Amino acid sequence: MASQQLKFPLRIPFVEQLGLELWAFGDGKAELRVDLAEAHLNSWEVAHGGVLMTMLDVAMAHAARSGAGHDLAAGPGVATIEMKTSFMRPGEGRLRALGTLLHKSTTMGFTEGSVFNEAGQLCAHATGTFKYIRALPTSGRHAKPLQYNTPDKEAP
């Protein structure tokens, strides 16, 4: 896909903490990469399953969002409705996650994602369903807007 790292269109502090990098985003596809560090490892000293699942979730969410037929800089957001993950082999070294939008309706995106190791071997695969939303109702019924990565951009 892309040969240059991109800036995430939305601010996601958890993704920033994990050090995930966005390498492609558009036309119903997304690519993430990460160089595994000690903080990413489990007791076997390979990628923790939560790291792989987060990579899959974020790659699929970005694929769903990029294929929504809207201005990517303005929305909509997506919320994970369900996700099914299968693990094939331990993740080691530099990992790459690819997300693809398989089908979309006016309110939902159906996706799949895969994580590969440096040798191109499949480490994990997932399918996911995402709901297109503009704001997220939280406690007290207050809606929280998306947090964009551009300081001059306000939520629509």
Name the features:
156 residues, alpha+beta, Thiol Ester Dehydrase, Chain A, six-stranded antiparallel beta sheet, two-stranded antiparallel ribbon, 2 helices, 8 strands, 15% helix, globular
Note down, in words, how this protein is organized.
It is a single chain. The protein is of the alpha+beta class. The protein has a single domain, classed as Thiol Ester Dehydrase, Chain A (Roll). It contains two helices and eight strands. Strands 1-2-4-5-6-3 form a six-stranded antiparallel beta sheet, with helices on one face. The chain has a two-stranded antiparallel ribbon with strand order 7-8. The longest helix is centred in the middle third of the chain and has 18 residues. The chain starts with 12 loop residues before the first helix and ends in an 11-residue tail after the last strand. The model has no long low-confidence stretch (mean pLDDT 90).
Spatial order of the strands forming the largest sheet: 1-2-4-5-6-3
User: Gap between N and C termini, in Å?
Assistant: 30 Å
The SS-based structural class is alpha+beta
Strand content: 35-45%
Label the overall shape: globular
Instruction: Give the overall pLDDT as a whole number.
Output: 90
CATH class: Alpha Beta
> What is the assigned CATH homologous superfamily?
Hotdog Thioesterase
Number of separate strands: 8
Largest sheet: 6 strands, antiparallel
CATH topology-level fold name: Thiol Ester Dehydrase, Chain A
- Kindly give the count of domains: 1
CATH architecture: Roll
The helix/strand series, from N terminus to C terminus, equals HEEHEEEEEE
